[in-house]
Task: inverse folding
């Protein structure tokens, strides 16, 4: 029986935790920049659909931007914690972010460009986060 590599699990869990915090932070910035109208009921899909028709494009883009920044940060942290598993961890984290994004996009009204950003950019940004962490780690090791 294969043993569980706890450092790898810790890297993924810590990465996802930090990534989730980053998503919330970036979405919070979006809400500060573009507050929802008074009395907006976010539980009503018709209200959301109507808001998407009138909201500034950047307000709508802040949501998928938050997802790709979160995937970047999550992969970055996972690679710093478990550098030996950077290839598989970046794939796992990017896949989780993609699945969660698709779930959100299917549950709530969304625009075609929210789908495009999620489908086209989540994996590249997840991979870039891991790559940046690897570069930083290599530079630190070479300077020691």
Result:
């Amino acid at each position: 029986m294969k043993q569980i590599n706890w450092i790898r699990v810790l890297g993924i869990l810590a990465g996802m935790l930090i990534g989730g915090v980053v998503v919330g932070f970036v979405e919070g910035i979006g809400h500060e920049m573009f507050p929802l109208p008074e009395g907006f009921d976010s539980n009503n899909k018709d209200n959301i659909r109507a808001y998407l028709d009138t909201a500034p494009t950047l307000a709508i883009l802040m949501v998928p931007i938050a997802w790709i920044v979160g995937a970047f940060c999550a992969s970055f942290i996972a690679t710093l914690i478990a550098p030996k598993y950077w290839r598989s961890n970046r794939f796992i984290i990017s896949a989780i972010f993609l699945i969660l994004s698709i779930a959100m996009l299917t549950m709530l009204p969304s625009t075609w460009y929210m789908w495009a950003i999620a489908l086209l950019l989540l994996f590249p940004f997840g991979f870039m986060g891991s790559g940046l962490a690897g570069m930083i780690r290599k530079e630190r090791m070479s300077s020691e």
